[in-house]
Design goal:
747 residues, 6-stranded mixed beta sheet, 20% strand, binds beta-D-glucopyranose
Length: 747
């Protein structure tokens, strides 16, 4: 026994000594106990010039090389931002044809923003990060936080709305959640990419104040508070330079002012010049004209701006290696944070937890826009006949829309969700109502649906009206879709109205049946000329895999809606600053350069800031959303009458659930600077809290305001200034429904 024990101890000692020796022999860059910066320097010192150059550009559509000789792995990127894109061929956009790359589609980021719930944003980030990790992706190309400037922008559905404060608060947890998996978030598209039309040659002209106050805050929050490890440049230009190699935005603001220590990734095909790419802040080039091998001298990838042309410039002495080392250091830092972090978790794919998360996010993001006579929720306790009308009740929405298109394990359509939830308690009939876009394919992923229907619009409407006539409820499910000129990358919408013949169908249904509910599926505002003739309206976004289940939960009252609009629904395009002041789509230069100058003439006055200034009456204001219960706001109070620049003021307001079901209210805090040396918006969102209340329950909602929330960006001083004077705090249920005010002085 003792002999055995001694032998065992000797063996353990020998093994651990050997392990220690192995560890001691580890080169510094592989030793995870060492400081990352030391490891970076060590790896860099071992690399050849060509190895360094290779690291700065892609080797395939979505990957870049590591340093094989040193055992530093490749990077694999993936879209983003709503699910993990299916595998494509090495050098083509076509499908690789894998059978293990289906994912969970999470709701679009507009829906996430509509939850006004930062905790749910963390859940989103963590879950999608797990899917990315399981699929062996190291950089997730998302989230997107470009500001909603016009309802025509085809990519608004991928972003977080019109307000810099809301999008800042929502992006941070998403980034943290993704990166908790050892997967980098790549926040995009930095910056000023607010439309799709002519996105490669539009030069945005904007004043510094608007840039800093409206278009940069969400990126800044993602970098500074979220600690984002990578960021993606935008396609367009600013100060006559493409944003993927823009000295002002990338070097001066991102890297100097904000101290970003991560990697700037180009948008795919967003690089145009080697010299600028070397000096103006870009670290990694992706997606430049990769049409197979036909264009390159050796391979297309060798001809990237940051490949052979870069090497040649260094060899000829036209460029030094200082910038190259700087880029490679950042890329190595990213390796140590992701691919070379042996402690990162393994992730998971299509787990029940992810489908549950997708459903929960969808349920919390759906916005109840109208509910006359408490038409919703639909009570199934007595048997009902429900007519479901509209293409979006059956159309798969996870395929299409551009780079965010997905191949999903499953997608529950609204009709399927309704049928399943209603069970035997209702008779459900369906009619198409209109034919929008029957196609369903993106990059070779097919929805598999045959939505072809050659009937005339008269026939379709008459069928729908017949189905609706004797129903207890009619639920019209329409809106936009993911086809060109709808909610889709690379094109903008042609107008703000609902497309196809939907308005006619809805008008006909309203005449046939009073109990009409409209479910609008879109990532953008639409006009609703029939609003007075409908009982209830839901804004339901693109909800991903669990779409139908989430919609059914809200329609039948399993979930009490608590979403609020992350952008204004204007009554017309005339009510949008970017359109009213006439610069949307800009003016082409007549110097043969093909560049279009677009002035953001509306300045700070985007969304509700414009509505407040111009006193317009939007169809639905920013921050708006109803519930199946009602909330009573008490009187707001402040703990001080005045504060100094270093003090915090505490604002408290009691909110009560005055209805009969439990629900959640998003209490919003806006600040109004009553007197200021520079013009300021009437009010600006500077706080919000989502409170969950049982019937009759009251909670005190508390906000803390510091000079950060009171400041504006003074472009002459190039600094944030909180000007002494009187401020008013407005607490409301939306930007247009202020319940209580309290004022104080800033000294
Ligand atoms: C899009 C990016 C996307 C990239 C890769 C580009 O066209 O603008 O958002 O991540 O393609 O698919």
């Amino acid at each position: 026994m003792t002999v055995q024990k001694t032998f065992l101890s000797i063996l353990i000692l020998a093994l651990s000594t050997q392990m220690q020796a192995q560890k001691d022999n580890l080169p510094i860059y592989l030793d995870e106990t060492k400081d990352i910066e030391l490891r970076i320097e060590n790896a860099l010192s071992r690399m050849t010039l060509s190895e360094k150059i290779a690291m700065t550009h892609a080797q395939s559509k979505f990957s870049s090389p590591g340093v094989p000789r040193l055992g530093i792995p490749e990077f694999w990127t993936t879209d983003g931002p709503h699910g993990i894109r299916p595998e494509v061929l090495w050098d083509e956009w076509d499908q690789a044809g894998w059978t293990n790359d289906s994912c969970v589609a999470f709701p679009a980021l507009t829906c996430l923003a509509a939850t006004w719930n930062p905790e749910i944003s963390y859940l989103y980030g963590k879950s999608i990060g797990e899917e990315a990790r399981y699929r062996k992706k190291d950089i997730l190309l998302g989230p997107g936080v470009n500001i909603y400037r016009t309802p025509l922008n085809g990519r608004n559905f991928e972003y977080m709305g019109e307000d810099p404060y809301l999008s800042s608060k929502m992006v941070v947890p998403y980034v943290k959640g993704v990166q908790s998996n050892g997967v980098a978030a790549c926040v995009k598209h930095f910056a000023l990419n607010n439309q799709e039309v002519k996105r490669h040659n539009t030069n945005v002209i904007i004043d510094d104040r608007t840039l800093y106050e409206i278009y940069l805050p969400a990126f800044k929050a993602a970098v500074i508070e979220g600690g984002a490890w990578s960021i993606m440049g935008a396609y367009n230009l600013y100060k006559n330079q493409h944003l993927c190699h823009n000295e002002y935005i990338l070097n001066n603001i991102l890297k100097s002012e904000w101290g970003f220590d991560g990697v700037v990734v180009s948008d795919w095909g967003g690089v145009h010049d080697t010299k600028e790419a070397i000096t103006n802040g870009l670290d990694m080039e992706f997606g430049s004209w990769t049409n197979g091998l036909s264009k390159g001298t050796k391979s297309a990838y060798d001809n990237y701006y940051l490949a052979y042309p870069y090497l040649q410039m260094i060899k000829k002495g036209e460029a030094g290696t200082k910038e190259l080392d700087e880029k490679v250091k950042r890329i190595l830092r990213l390796s140590f944070r992701t691919t070379m972090n042996s402690k990162r978790p393994y992730g998971s794919l299509c787990s029940q937890a992810h489908f549950n998360a997708a459903k929960q996010i969808g349920e919390e993001g759906i916005v109840l826009l109208q509910n006359k006579d408490n038409t919703l929720p639909i009570d199934l306790s007595t048997n009902k006949k429900i007519a479901v009308i509209g293409e979006n009740a059956i159309k798969m929405m996870t395929v299409g829309g551009g780079s965010s298109s997905l191949k999903v394990k499953y997608e529950i359509s609204p009709l399927d969700g309704i049928v399943k939830r209603a069970g035997n308690n209702a008779e459900i009939v369906f009619a198409r109502g209109y034919v929008g876009d029957p196609t369903g394919e993106y990059n070779g992923v097919k929805s598999g649906q045959n939505l072809k229907d050659d009937r005339s619009s008269e026939e379709l409407i008459s069928e729908a009206v017949n189905a609706a006539k004797d129903a207890d409820y009619v639920i019209f499910i329409g809106g936009l879709n993911k086809s060109n000129n709808q909610d889709c990358e690379d094109s903008d919408r042609k107008g703000i109205e609902l497309p196809y013949t939907q308005n006619e169908v809805i008008n006909a249904l309203a005449k046939a049946n009073k109990n009409l509910v409209v479910v609008n599926i879109s990532g953008n505002a639409v006009t609703m000329p029939w609003i007075k003739d409908t009982k209830a309206i839901l804004q339901a976004w693109y909800l991903g895999s669990e779409a139908g289940n989430a919609i059914a939960s809200v329609l039948f009252g399993d979930v009490n809606p608590s979403g609020k609009l992350p952008f204004t629904f204007p009554a017309s395009l005339e009510e949008v600053g970017a359109h009213k002041l006439g610069e949307y789509l800009g003016i082409e230069r007549n110097d043969g350069s093909n560049i279009i100058d677009e002035k953001y003439n509306e300045g700070l006055f985007v969304g509700y800031r414009w509505a407040d200034k111009e006193k317009t009456s939007p169809l639905f204001p920013f921050g708006y959303g109803l519930s199946y219960t009602t909330f009573k706001y008490g009187k707001a109070s402040a703990d001080k009458k005045s504060i100094t620049q270093d003090e915090t003021i505490k604002i408290t307001i009691p909110v009560t659930n005055s209805g009969s079901v439990k629900g959640a209210e998003v209490v919003q805090l806006y600040i109004s600077d009553l007197k200021s040396s520079l013009p300021r918006p009437v009010k600006e969102l500077k706080g919000f809290k989502k409170v969950y209340l049982n019937p009759d329950e009251t909670k005190e909602v508390v906000f803390e305001i510091t000079k950060n929330e009171l400041s504006f960006f003074d472009d002459k001083k190039h600094d944030w200034i909180a000007e002494p004077g009187k401020f008013e705090i407005l607490i409301g249920a939306s930007s247009a429904d202020i319940k209580s005010k309290v004022s104080f002085d800033l000294k």
